[in-house]
């Protein structure tokens, strides 16, 4: 079997078009959607992500403000900026690009963001809502995976799903979102025994490990759906995921490539969350 390649770029383009239309509807009501992006320090990967987020805002008609702070910024200064953005009326969503320099507590900063402006869905209040299923914002990367499954008509209900990785950003919320769609979910991590056996018994695999070529062809059963969240560099310095794409795509029914799979969806989901935040803050339902 040769897998259907899930096109994250095309799906992103379509969804960003939908966000643009809704943002335009808000505009016609005199309401502007606005996102503040905060970056501390000059990590090149973070800079690329921030630039891509600003580009996506422009594509969706969302107003954006960038706050680029030096690596020497103190925790108190950053918290003061968050306070200011929490109160700023033309800002509906606040995104603080992680990681932050070591001397700043990420937890303190995340906890300081107003939950209804927390478009990354990292605030404990939003994390709790993801657990109960009563959520306003979905965490961007796991939500991107779910949107791709939906776009390709892949029904998750009753399926055995394995998520590799248990981070707060990807693995844990991904497991919850699959569970909410009635999958039977196994969360695998660095201490999991017989990982290959669990994967072979799975209908859906989401890999979020951060190791190039981690999921090999012999770990995947014929017809499985394989979603690759990983972003790595291989020995030649080329961008690649956690999945041995050449071998696994011969067995899977659907597979996401890296680049061009889950990656573009993360920022698209951020745009959706910013739109949602604007609607919530203005008491408007556009769904
Ligand atoms: P992380 O380092 O916080 O977590 C990695 C997880 O992998 C851990 O929970 C760990 O238990 C698990 N793991 C490590 N070794 C393992 C092993 N041998 N067997 C089983 N599990 C093992 O990373 P993260 O932030 O969750 O990110 C994971 C990957 O996803 C990274 O490559 C990251 O760059 C990528 N990522 C991509 C996007 C995107 O937009 N596509 C967004 C976030 C993260």
How is this structure best described in words?
- The chain has two domains: 29-118, Leucine Dehydrogenase, chain A, domain 1 (Rossmann fold, 3-Layer(aba) Sandwich); 140-263, Rossmann fold (3-Layer(aba) Sandwich).
- The chain is 41% helix and 15% strand.
- The chain has helices at residues 8-28, 44-60, 75-87, 106-112, 124-132, 140-151, 171-180, 195-200, 245-248, 262-281, and strands at residues 4-5, 34-40, 63-69, 93-96, 160-164, 184-188, 204-207, 225-228, 232-233, 239-240, 254-255.
- A six-stranded parallel sheet has the order 1-11-8-7-5-6.
- Helix 2 links the parallel strand 2 (34-40) and strand 3.
- Bound molecules: nicotinamide-adenine-dinucleotide.
- Nicotinamide-adenine-dinucleotide binds at residues 141, 164-167, 169-171, 188-190, 192, 195, 208-210, 229-232, 262-263, 266.
Annotate the secondary structure layout:
Layout: E1 4-5, H1 8-28, E2 34-40, H2 44-60, E3 63-69, H3 75-87, E4 93-96, H4 106-112, H5 124-132, H6 140-151, E5 160-164, H7 171-180, E6 184-188, H8 195-200, E7 204-207, E8 225-228, E9 232-233, E10 239-240, H9 245-248, E11 254-255, H10 262-281
Parallel strand pairs: 1-11, 2-3, 2-4, 5-6, 5-7, 7-8, 8-11
Antiparallel strand pairs: 9-10
Helix pairs in contact: 1-10, 2-10, 6-7, 6-10
The structure holds nicotinamide-adenine-dinucleotide.
């Amino acid at each position: 079997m040769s897998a259907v390649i899930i096109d994250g770029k095309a799906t992103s383009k379509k969804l960003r078009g939908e966000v643009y239309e809704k943002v335009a509807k808000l505009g016609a009501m005199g309401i502007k959607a606005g996102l503040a992006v905060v970056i501390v320090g000059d990590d090149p990967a973070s800079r690329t992500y921030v630039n891509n987020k600003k580009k996506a805002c422009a594509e969706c008609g969302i107003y954006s403000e960038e706050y680029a702070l030096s690596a020497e910024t103190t925790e108190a200064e950053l918290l003061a900026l968050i306070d200011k953005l929490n109160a700023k009326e033309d800002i509906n969503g606040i995104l603080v690009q992680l990681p932050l320099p070591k001397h700043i507590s990420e937890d303190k900063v995340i906890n300081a963001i107003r939950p209804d402006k927390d478009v990354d869905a990292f605030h404990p209040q939003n994390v709790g809502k993801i657990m109960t299923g009563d959520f306003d914002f979905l965490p961007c990367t796991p939500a991107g995976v779910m949107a791709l499954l939906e776009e390709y008509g892949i029904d998750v209900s009753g399926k055995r799903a394995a998520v590799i990785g248990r981070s707060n950003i990807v693995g844990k919320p991904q497991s919850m979102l699959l569970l909410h769609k009635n999958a039977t979910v196994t969360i695998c991590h660095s201490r999991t025994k017989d990982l290959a056996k669990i994967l072979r018994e799975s209908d859906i695999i989401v890999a979020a490990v951060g190791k190039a070529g981690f999921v090999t062809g012999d770990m995947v059963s014929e017809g499985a759906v394989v979603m690759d969240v990983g972003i790595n560099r291989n020995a030649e310095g080329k961008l690649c995921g956690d999945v041995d794409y050449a071998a696994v795509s011969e067995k899977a029914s659907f597979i996401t490539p890296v680049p061009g799979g889950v990656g573009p969806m993360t920022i698209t989901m951020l745009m959706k969350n910013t739109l949602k935040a604007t609607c919530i803050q203005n008491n408007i339902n556009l769904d």
